[in-house]
């Protein structure tokens, strides 16, 4: 039986809402792919920033295991060091007979030596040529003593003068080489878009002439009952007017449309060369974007769904199960193992890796699942753990009060239920589930945080699975 080709389409900072039918974001090619594929409504990233989530996709592990707990360019190496001894999905695909190539944003570890990971051909942000543009209409933000930063903008140059067009073209060239040589391929195409600053070609921006950019229902949220740092981050954007938020949203949608056009070119190529039916296409994002939710933009500490819920679409060979939507939870670190099984490749090696969700896709398992995320706070080191189960979401904030949301009753996350006595039992239950996963995955620094002033969670981790190796430094009375 002929191996299916595999393509990963990785976007940076694309929120799930843009692929919804109700969205005004123009994504015809991606929606056609959804019609031919299966869609996961409850896919969540394991981290709100690029490098940790991308490394989790690559390794099938959580950030505290692979070590890249922050973005490669934001902290010194000792604060985020990738563990090169870990197995990767690219090596597993290579072992399965696939020619593996990667074009576009890497941002997983610092060497950019992708051949170490079984990737034969590649161009990352270190190698892709620059595409200078002439921005003539922009929105900026800046506070006293800080640089003015571009939020969004429009430039004169066309779609042909974009990095997104370039990397898709390079990937299509690699696919054509493999087709001519009769080799199955596993290709990764990773765009910077739609990451901020949201700067786009005028020709695409004009597609949204006359479209009313409605702001989210949570736009006027004053964030009462939530950690103060959220309000401080909201205050940092006080210089932006409602019109600025709307322009940013229009540019963001245009950036998504730019990606969608490249996906259309890719699908056209696959169909014209007779490869579409035998290709497994996986489309996802590393995380989302607040895009006006709670009067904020981009992403950071606030753990809202606009950032953590991601688009995830899989177009299976032969368009199997076309049009199906699944509501079970699926995590970033489970995507790779799932695709490996669908492609008939070996499992990832390692003591703790994500499991395949194929049994849930095939309907062999129907029991509930969960989602879990780790956040290490970037430069300011705000530690969070987030646990989702049965439409409930618990956020352990080591720096402030916890959060609890009923996502079915309150999808915009306007009411923090963590201090509501009626939800005390539920909060403790979800916190205890969080601790079980923390201990199971070997997150010792968090699970062993039993120093008296650190006993701040609503319920503790219980019996430790790993002995405390520091007892010789403390007297035992």
Total strands: 15
Q: What share of residues is helical?
A: 25-40%
Task: Give the CATH superfamily of the largest domain.
Answer: Alkaline Phosphatase, subunit A
Q: Uncertain regions: pLDDT < 50 for 5+ in a row? A: none
What report would you give on this structure?
The chain has 477 residues and is an alpha/beta fold. The chain has 2 domains: 5-361, Alkaline Phosphatase, subunit A (3-Layer(aba) Sandwich); 383-468, Arylsulfatase, C-terminal domain. Helices cover 28% and strands 18% of the residues. The chain is built from 13 helices and 15 strands. It has helices at residues 28-36, 50-59, 63-66, 89-95, 163-181, 202-205, 228-236, 242-272, 305-308, 332-342, 358-361, 424-440, 444-447, and strands spanning 5-11, 38-44, 99-104, 121-123, 135-141, 149-155, 185-190, 198-201, 279-285, 312-315, 325-331, 371-375, 384-389, 392-397, 403-406. The strands form 3 sheets. Strands 4-3-7-1-9-10-2-11 form an 8-stranded mixed beta sheet, with helices on both faces. A hairpin with a 5-residue loop joins strand 14 (392-397) and strand 15 (403-406). Helix 2 runs parallel beside helix 10 (332-342) and helix 5 (163-181) packs parallel to helix 8 (242-272).
Layout of SSEs?
Blueprint: E1 5-11, H1 28-36, E2 38-44, H2 50-59, H3 63-66, H4 89-95, E3 99-104, E4 121-123, E5 135-141, E6 149-155, H5 163-181, E7 185-190, E8 198-201, H6 202-205, H7 228-236, H8 242-272, E9 279-285, H9 305-308, E10 312-315, E11 325-331, H10 332-342, H11 358-361, E12 371-375, E13 384-389, E14 392-397, E15 403-406, H12 424-440, H13 444-447
Parallel strand pairs: 1-7, 1-9, 2-11, 3-4, 3-7, 6-8
Antiparallel strand pairs: 2-10, 5-6, 9-10, 12-13, 13-14, 14-15
Helix pairs in contact: 2-10, 5-8
